[in-house]
Each structure stands twice: as C-alpha cells, then as structure tokens.
Amino acid sequence: MIKRIIQISFTVALVLLIVSCKNTKQKLQEYVKTYNSTAVNFKADDVTLTTARGYINDNKIELRFETSLELNDSNKVKANTSFPKLLKEMINTNQIPKELIEEGVQFDTYFLANDNTVLVKEIINKESVGELLK
C-alpha cells in the first residue's frame, strides 16, 4: 500500500516537473493565446480593443491597443503621457510578464488612433524595461 502511494506521488511530481519546465517559445505562445482570450475584459482609458501577436522565430510579441482617439497633435501628446503609464501598470500587474522580458522576449507595443495609425510605439525589452518602470 505504501509502495503504491509512493509510486503515485512520484508520478504526480514528475508530471508537474515536466509541465512546469516550458521553454521560452512555449511561454510566448501560451501568453499570446491567454492574452487574446481575455482581451475582451481589458479596460483602459480610450482603449477599444487590444490584441497580441507572437513571432516565435523573432522572440517577439506585438501588442496593439486600438483607441477611440483621432489622430491629431493633442491626442499624440495625451498618448505619450498615458501609454507609458498603462504599460508600466501592465508590467507591475504581470499582464506583461517580466519573466518573458528577462528571458529575452521583446514586446513591440502600439497605441493606435481610431484609423489604426500609430500614436505611440514603445519597445519593451531587457534594456528598456528599467526606464519604463521608473
């Protein structure tokens, strides 16, 4: 009986070890899938839609934030202030995982006007994350 319990415990521990040992590419794919499935619940000022796209070979994730803002100078100024704050909050709440950044995944993030033109673009990687979190 004890031998059987030990065998089952060992098997469960081995399965957990194998499952938890994902490589960066697997984590990237899982992040994109999870992000897009929960994007409908995303709430931020002026953001109407957000999506993620993964580029496994480039070790990169693209995050797009579509907004209701028109493309003009005042909205560009507003976006240059609010978008870095949004990204900082997403990193601090693990919506953009530091673990992936530390493993070398680059996040190309775009804050888009209502006509899909770029208001602000931020690249988050090992080098830039510290500056963004200040």
Automatic annotation (TrEMBL):
Q: Which domain of life is it from?
A: Bacteria
Under which name does UniProt file this protein?
Lipoprotein
